[in-house]
Design a protein that fits this description.
This protein is α/β, with parallel strands linked by helices. Helix content is 13%, strand content 31%. Strand 6 (108-113) and strand 7 form a beta hairpin.
Length: 131
């Protein structure tokens, strides 16, 4: 196979791979959305807990949307915030394989942490639903 054909095949494969990486805004993905008030922010995101880290550490979701935490570590973790009012949440204890979904209605930035391992921190940005 000549070099030009190999390059064309590789470019086509890369193009197809990147085309499948988008988010429809409603899928349970950890994709980040657009600007505040932009309906490009997803309605649902997932934060994995693995190797004593929140992955990703920062997520963006539309108001009224949800964040699901999934514990992939073999130790107990949680995700909670000290925020008051509608932005407050606490997943309670999550053991290996546990998940907890939290719905967030109030726009704002909410820092969260694991109360078992205080060095584990993250942020949820809730943007206005741009509809």
């Amino acid at each position: 196979m000549n070099l030009l054909r190999v390059t064309a095949v590789a470019a086509a494969a890369a193009s197809l791979a990147f085309a499948g990486c988008g988010s429809d805004g409603d899928a349970g993905s950890s994709a980040q959305g657009g600007e505040a008030g932009d309906s490009a922010a997803p309605r649902r995101v997932t934060v994995k807990i693995a190797s004593y880290k929140f992955v990703p550490e920062t997520v963006r979701v539309r108001a009224g949307g949800s964040v699901t935490w999934e514990n992939e570590d073999d130790v107990t973790h949680d995700a909670q915030t000290d925020a008051g009012g509608k932005g407050a949440f606490d997943t309670q204890a999550l053991t290996l394989g546990d998940t907890k979904r939290v719905t967030l209605d109030e726009p704002g930035r909410y820092a969260f942490y694991c109360s078992y391992h205080r060095f584990m921190e993250g942020t949820v940005e809730v943007v206005p639903d741009g509809r």
